[in-house]
UniProtKB/TrEMBL annotation:
Protein name: Adenylyl-sulfate kinase
Species per Swiss-Prot/TrEMBL record: Brachypodium distachyon
Pathway connected to this protein: Sulfur metabolism; hydrogen sulfide biosynthesis; sulfite from sulfate: step 2/3
GO molecular function, one term: adenylylsulfate kinase activity
Family of the protein in this entry: Belongs to the APS kinase family.
Function: Catalyzes the synthesis of activated sulfate.
Pfam families named in the record: APS_kinase
Catalytic activity: adenosine 5'-phosphosulfate + ATP = 3'-phosphoadenylyl sulfate + ADP + H(+)
Length: 276
C-alpha cells in the first residue's frame, strides 16, 4: 500500500508582521525631499565672487551660472576677491572700538617705539585691543629680505601699510612705529584707509636731540661712515605737513612717555575711535 504525500501546512503571518511589511513597502516608495542650502565657496560667504546660481523664468528651471569677475593686480593675474558676511562693522561692535592705524613717524631716537609701547599699554588697561607693528621687529621676519636702499624702504612701508590695513579691518587699533622717511610712501599708506582711519603722529624732535640720545649707536656709526644712507645724516627725512598729531618738546623738555600717550588718547576719545 503506497504512502500518501501530505504537503506541510502553509505558515500564516501574524497580523502585526503583515502590517509592518506593508509599512516598509510603502516607505520605500515615499521619499521626503528637504531643501539644504548650498554653501558658496569654502565657507558659505554670501556675496562672494564665486559663481552664483539662480533660476531663470524658463520652463525647465535649470540653474544658470554667472561668470565670476576676475582681476589682474600687479603681477597677480586671474584673481578673485571674496567678501564675507562678517565685516568691519560687526568686528568693531564686538570689540567696542573702531579699527584704525596710528602711524608714528620720526627720526631714529625720536621716541617712536617708546610712544607705541606706552600707548598700547594705556589702551590695553582701558580694555581696548591693540597691536604694535615696530619697524625693527618687522625686519626680523616679514621684511628681512629688504635693505635700507630707497626702493627697499618704499617696499618696506608698502608691506607694513597693507598689514596695518588688515589689522584695522579686523577692528584692531594698530600702532605702526617706523621712521618712514618719505612723504609719498606715508601718503600711499593713508590712501589705503578711507574714512579717516589713518592717524599720523609726527615725532617732531630736533636732530641734535635724537643724535644725542642715539640709543642704538647708529648715529655714531653713520657719522664715521660705517653706515651708509642713514636717515638724518646722509639720507633725507621728509617731515609731514598735515599730521593729525604732533609731538614736540615743551619748554626745552621732551614729554614723558605717559604724556605722549595721553596726547594720542585724547585725540582717539575726541574723535570716537574708542567706541564702536
Amino acid at each position: 500500500m503506497s504512502s500518501l504525500s501530505i504537503p506541510p501546512p502553509l505558515l500564516r503571518a501574524s497580523p502585526s508582521l503583515t502590517a509592518a511589511a506593508k509599512w516598509r513597502k510603502g516607505a520605500v516608495r515615499v521619499r521626503v525631499r528637504t531643501s539644504v542650502p548650498a554653501l558658496d565657496g569654502d565657507g558659505g560667504c554670501a556675496g562672494s565672487g564665486m559663481e552664483q546660481q539662480h533660476h531663470q523664468g524658463d520652463a525647465s528651471g535649470s540653474a544658470v551660472r554667472e561668470k565670476p569677475v576676475m582681476s589682474n593686480i600687479g603681477k597677480s593675474t586671474n584673481i578673485l576677491w571674496h567678501d564675507c558676511p562678517i565685516g568691519q562693522p560687526e568686528r568693531q561692535k564686538l570689540l567696542g572700538q573702531k579699527g584704525c592705524v596710528i602711524w608714528i613717524t620720526g627720526l631714529s631716537g625720536s621716541g617712536k617705539s617708546t610712544l607705541a609701547c606706552a600707548l598700547s599699554r594705556e589702551l590695553h588697561c582701558r580694555g581696548h585691543h591693540t597691536y604694535v607693528l615696530d619697524g625693527d621687529n618687522l625686519r626680523h621676519g616679514l621684511n628681512r629680505d629688504l635693505s635700507f636702499k630707497a626702493e627697499d624702504r618704499t617696499e618696506n612701508i608698502r608691506r607694513v601699510g597693507e598689514v596695518a590695513k588688515l589689522f584695522a579691518d579686523a577692528g584692531t587699533i594698530c600702532i605702526a612705529s617706523l621712521i618712514s622717511p618719505y612723504r609719498r610712501d606715508r601718503d600711499a599708506c593713508r590712501a589705503l584707509l578711507p574714512d579717516s582711519r589713518f592717524i599720523e603722529v609726527f615725532m617732531d624732535l630736533p636732530l641734535e636731540i635724537c643724535e644725542a640720545r642715539d640709543p642704538k649707536g647708529l648715529y655714531k656709526l653713520a657719522r664715521t661712515g660705517k653706515i651708509k644712507g642713514f636717515t638724518g645724516v646722509d639720507d633725507p627725512y621728509e617731515s609731514p605737513v598735515n599730521s593729525e598729531i604732533v609731538i614736540k618738546m615743551e619748554d626745552g623738555e621732551c614729554p614723558s612717555p605717559k604724556a605722549m600717550a595721553n596726547q594720542v588718547l585724547c585725540y582717539l576719545e575726541e574723535n570716537g575711535y574708542l567706541q564702536a
